[in-house]
Amino acid sequence: MNIEKQLSELTERITYTRDILGNKSRPELEAFAKEISEFQDKYTDADESRCIRAIESLDRRLTTMESAIDAQITAMDKVRIVRHPQRVCLKDILENVYDKYTEIGGKDEHSIDPGMLIARAYITRRKGKKIINQPVMVVGQEKGHGQEFRNGGSIKPWGNSKALKYMKVAAREQIPIHAYVNTPGSYPVEDFPGAAQQIAENIYEMAGLTVPIIAVFSEGGSGGAEAIGMADKRLMFSHGYYSVISPEGAAAIEGRIRGSERAPTELIESCAIAQRITAQDNLSNGYIDEIIDEPPLGARADHFDFYKQVREQVIRATDEITLSVRGLRLFRAIAIRHFRKHADIIVRWSLSEKARERLVNRRYKKYRKLAQHAYQDNRSLLDKLNATSTGIVSSTTSLVQYGLIKPFKQKIAQIIEEATDEIHVITGKVDALYHAGLKKLGFKSLGDRQKEMELTGLSKEENPKAVIESDSGYMSPQARIDREVTCPHAGKRGCLDIWARDLYTDFAGVCPHCGYNFPMEYQWYLHNVFDKNSIREFNRDIASGNPTGFPNFEQRVEAAKEKTGLQSSCMTFNASLEGIHLTCATLIANFRGGSVGAAEGEKFIRALELAQTKHQPFLAYVHGTAGIRIQEGVNGLIQMPRCTMAVRKYIEEGGLYIVLYDTNSYAGPVASFLGCSPYQYAVRSSRLGFAGPGVIKETTGLEIPPDYHNCFKALSRGHIQGIWSRKDIRKNLQHALLTIGGRNLYYR
């Protein structure tokens, strides 16, 4: 045995443990390190057998010490574990969990984002003499062991696009997807297609993939995790973490840290605990399904027993998902119970068409049930009964009107149209012969004169009103300020100062010279866009809370409720616009920056479900959003896939979903249930993107230009489809409702 090599390995284990503990001192560890450093001197004259026994004793003692330290590690220690270069990576898993694999889509520093690794792999299973090769598509963030070109698993938009491309390939080939989530978060760049837009597309498309998806979490950082984390079954390594934001990021926000300052270690540690980011926390909240146990202080590349466990659990998870949607429910349940007892059962992973439909429906129901404990439902019993009865009435009305009457009317209309077309063919031939006879006699027909007038005359508007008027009944408080206001572009565009009363009343907050849109209150929008007295709010008393018990946060939420008169940052209501009935959800910047938590997500989903029941178009107006509410932890983060699945279900049923951004809109909502809309528009002067300037500088060190997030940049990369002046919102929305949509389920 090479004694120096054994001593070196023990020293490396001690160094690793020190790294995991951060600044925390462990006297017994330091004493042990000293003992190893003095080993050579102490055993200089000893024979080899005595040295070997001494080293074996040291190894056993260190193993015991690692187990004792492991039992006491904190949430922040686990963050350091998953970030350590020795941490098990996706390449290690491919080499040791799967039997054969081939990387696709590029695999080195010259490929399209080498941080995202895609592989076509096989799992070989034996039963007696029978050998079955079962193919899977493996996708995941790859950090490597300190490989800089992989960017620490922080994925750029084109990396997430690459993952989605091959997940769709897996769906076409009908093979399961195994996704390994190991990222601190996506790289916040807005180059085409944009970080937020690509994550939103990934979540939306994954929701409808018709193959089993298994996600395994090691480091699940914010929207980067959600880009490939939408799964039928979610597993998590016992020393991993899954969070809406890193503990350092949360501490920076909580401590109001600016510039080059660093948050205190104590604050970072407390934020890691308060956000409930560990595997055990996420299992208790229901956001993962099972934990894969790791060796003490986390799995590293040479822990081969760990790979056996990973293999066993991903196979079992895939089998269970397949069985859960196949065949009769009774026999599926028996098969699953039997399978847990007898691991030698081989389950085929192919699914019938009906089973694939059940899989997607089951996925929707799974995510719909999440986070039900994380918001406050302050509605009275009477309100709840009223909401239930309204839902039943709406569903019944919808069934009769759209399930029975409308198809019958469409069939009758189709028969009449076909008969009319046939009559027109016959009369057209007779009419042509008549006009031909007149021309031979030298007469000009009335029809010809009419065609001349249509070609040379001026067209007339059907509606003579140039501007849709609205009696608002609301005056912006800014209009009461008796002073002139200077446009931000006055220096380069020569805009004249504007009297506040004129600017915030007649001009609707729009500079009459350059068109700059000054920020306005959400009340202005409510009173000036929709028909007078048509707004009917619902689910008002579903309220934001503090589901993680984050220190001192409950008081801040209550203060926001008191200040704004709102119960959450999301307001949902029914309204009409020029007689067109629609459902709307508004994210309001006044309430905690318009951030989204469990209450906001639940209200958004219920509004979508109501719009689907009523067959109405759905409008998401974003007065402003700062992203997901970090103090709610994964309770907030899970709203990204939850709300996106509800959007997908609504659109798949034929609904029209329009998003309109105002002021500043960033992060999780834009990277999911807002960004997945096919019809997104922005008010001029608004700003939108994946991460704000401060976050970009903190994570990448890059200074971004002032116009990096303006709506014209978003338009140029295809994130939005148009830019509107605030004065034109009502008119443009009316036109949109009349001209775009899926199968026109909503009001026609």
Could you characterize the architecture of this molecule?
This protein is an alpha/beta fold and 748 residues long. It folds into four domains: 3-72, no CATH class; 82-368, 2-enoyl-CoA Hydratase, Chain A, domain 1 (Alpha-Beta Complex), CATH 3.90.226; 426-457, no CATH class; 520-739, 2-enoyl-CoA Hydratase, Chain A, domain 1, CATH 3.90.226. It has a seven-stranded mixed beta sheet with strand order 1-2-3-4-5-6-7, sandwiched between helices. A seven-stranded mixed beta sheet has the order 11-13-14-15-16-18-20. It is globular and about 125 Å long. Mean pLDDT is 85; it is low at 459-472.
| Poorly predicted residue ranges | 459-472
| The first-level CATH class name of the largest domain | Alpha Beta
Mean pLDDT: 85
The CATH topology annotation of the largest domain reads as 2-enoyl-CoA Hydratase, Chain A, domain 1
CATH architecture of the largest domain: Alpha-Beta Complex
The structural class is alpha/beta
CATH superfamily of the largest domain: 2-enoyl-CoA Hydratase, Chain A, domain 1
* Rg (C-alpha, Å): 31 Å
Q: What spatial form do the alpha-carbon principal axes imply?
A: globular
Q: How would you write the strand order of the largest sheet?
A: 1-2-3-4-5-6-7
Largest β-sheet summary: 7 strands, mixed
In angstroms, what separates the terminal alpha carbons?
A: 82 Å
Helix content: 40-55%
Number of domains: 4
Strand content: 5-15%
Can you count the beta strands?
20
